[in-house]
Write a structure and sequence with these properties.
- This protein has helices spanning about 5-15, 25-35, 40-50, 160-175, and strands at about 15-20, 20-25, 60, 85, 105-110, 130, 150-155, 175-179.
- It has a single domain (about 5-179), classed as Ribonuclease Inhibitor (Leucine-rich repeat, LRR (right-handed beta-alpha superhelix)), CATH 3.80.10.
- α4 links the parallel β7 (about 150-155) and β8.
- Strands 1-2-3-4-5-6-7-8 form an eight-stranded mixed sheet, covered by helices on one side.
- The protein is globular.
- The protein is an alpha/beta fold and about 180 residues long.
- α1 runs antiparallel to α2 (about 25-35).
- The longest helix has 13 residues, at about 40-50.
Length: about 180
Amino acid sequence: MVDLKTKYDDAKKVAVIVSREIKVTKRDYEAVQTITNGQFGYFAITGLIELRKGSITGLNLSGLEVQASDLLPDLANLTSLERLNLSHNPLKNLPGCIGKLKNLKELYISHTQLTSLPEWTERLISLEELYAGFSEIKYLPKSMKRMKSLEYFVIRSNPLDDKAKALIRELKKSGVKIV
């Protein structure tokens, strides 16, 4: 039988916590992978949530080979999360739990394998900055027009289709800075 308490304690030890920001390094990620037999999502994210409860404002998982399946619904329990960095990961889709992060102001999903943004993107009512450049994005949901808080959108170096390009022009006219 697996000693979950020991694994949980070990997962807590490898998290680098500075103030209310959590930056998980590649070395930390590999340690959690070893400790948890590759189950980064359950032990690391759940452990971090338990460790800091609702006080986490930033979570940086950039470049850790994180898959959408690693981002468990527990991520939605990070109610104070304002910054989420998932850049440089082989993500092909974004899990719906991200759409429940009502306080999220910055989302970094650049350098991923995303081909579209999900329809639920508009539910990120506090999102001010969206970094989605250098991915494979072709499609953007029309609902993005309803994102009243969006101020800055990095979408460069994506193979956008004509409808997405038209939406970008609309967002630009509404005052969103497009890069």
